[in-house]
Amino acid sequence: MGKGFTRGVIRPMSRRAFVRGAVIPLLLAAGGLGGLAACQPTTSTPAPAATPTTPPAKAPTVSASTSSLRFGVWFGPEDVAMWKNVIDAFKQATPGIDVQIEPVAWDAFWQKLTTQIVAGDVWDVHGMVLGEVWWTYGQKGQLVNLRDFMKRDGVKDADYFAFIEEGRWPKDPGSDGMYMLPWRGTGGAFVVNKSLLAKAGLEPPKAGWTWANWRTWAKQLRDEKAGIWGTKLPTSLTAHVLQAGAPGVITEDLQKSNWLHPGVKETVQFFVDLILTDRSAPKPEEMPQGPQVQDLFLSGKVALDSSAAWNIPAWRKAEFDWDVVPQPVNKTRGSWAGPDDVAIPTASKQRDAAWQFVKFSTHEVAAQRIIGGTGVPVLKEYALSDAYIRAEAAKKPASYRIVVEELATGRPWLGGIKRWFEVSREIGQILPQIFNGKVGVDDGLKMIDAKVNEILNRPD
Q1: pLDDT given at position 411
Q2: What is the pTM of this model?
Q3: Is 96 inside a domain boundary?
Q4: Helix H segments across 23-170?
Q5: Separation of alpha carbons 266 and 247, rounded Å
């Protein structure tokens, strides 16, 4: 994130596909929550982890000859089987190290991690996201700085897409701290139902299509009698905020709200017009609930959908023709992206063995080839290779290259802000009121701006 993170179901998201509640699309829309990683819905703020009394430890050189690792991670329907395949490949490549996966639903993951840290019985490797990596865990010394391991084994930042930077803290120039590594990439994917477009006499959008085209076609594709919507709220507002000329919904220094920026207002107003004026997109209160939230496109009920790449495995089961198209242009181009990451807790007693698994999962093509079936690989050279892209395009979407190239240049949602879960929750309480027509755009954005600044300025 993701980023804005919050990355659902069907998932897969991502990359994955885990179940989100009805509020998730609004959280996602609130700023790209996403992801997290990528990928990650939540309706509650996890309890803060206990603060340790010792500083982060450097990478040790412990023998990894007879180790059994516990690996905790959130999951979607595709993910558990995928990780079992990765673990099988790892065990063949690294005899003597066993890995037991402990999948946990997103909503329960962070509380369980906190509980384990407090009890001193934490996983040896676990999932991590940008919104939590530093403020909740890293600065408290609860995550291993992976840099010494990386230097020892020749793992370079340049091997990955630029979103590897999400794991680097502090953010000062020249900082050498790396507290998580990406294992799968995800981001925006603007998907279209080609069957519905063809029925309306329209061709799929091409590079350079605009917000004006989007609005016009959404109205043309709306079929109230058949229950077809022209479009719907995006999974993340981030790409569209960027397209409107705003740097994001949080200032670049991550210290203040940017919800009153003209580009943010233009973006919110655009979707209000689609929903309330044109009636070409459903209100949040008209959206299906629970696991069906992300099924509108898959069920053939939405023609143009600014969604997320983590849904691709599910879309491949669609009974209609579909494809990914380039993001639309407004004042400029823009896309959002973010990875799912893994980290090693300082409480792990098997750090070297844990690193071997982290390195294999994130840096070996053998693992990335398996992971690439549920999301975009994080190794830049492999993900951009013709061989990988052709293989995925053969399974759909035909224009899969667009997904990878937009991920390579995408921006995260809310960045690494403090109190990420709380900010996401509060935004998700107000945005639906705007899109349901209960609160005006100006008043709603002022409410969000005040609440976000209050949370960010609160003393630690």
Answers
A1: 76
A2: 0.82
A3: no
A4: 24-29, 79-93, 106-119, 130-132, 147-153
A5: 13
Taking CA atoms, 336 is separated from 182, 280, 411, 415, in Å, by: 16, 24, 5, 11
- 318 phi-psi bin (left φ>0, alpha ψ -120 to 50, beta other): beta
In a domain, 289, yes or no: yes
CA distance from start to end of the chain: 23
- Structure confidence by residue, pLDDT tens digits, 122-174: 999 999 987 677 778 888 899 999 999 999 999 999 999 988 888 888 766 66
Q: What are the pLDDT digits (tens) for 234-255?
A: 988 888 999 999 888 888 777 8
Q: Is residue 113 part of a domain?
A: no
As given in the structure block, the two tokens for residue 75 are 């999951």
What CATH number does the domain containing 202 carry?
Answer: 3.40.190.10
Structural contact between residues 237 and 274, judged by C-beta atoms closer than 8 angstroms: no
Task: Give the count of domains, the chain.
Answer: 1
Q: Is the N-terminal amide bond of 3 cis, ω within 30° of 0?
A: yes
Q: Is residue 121 part of a domain?
A: no
Spell out the residues 6+ positions from residue 175 whose beta carbon is closer than 8 angstroms to its own. Answer: 168, 169
Tell me the HSE value of 301 on the side-chain side, using a 13 A CA sphere: 15
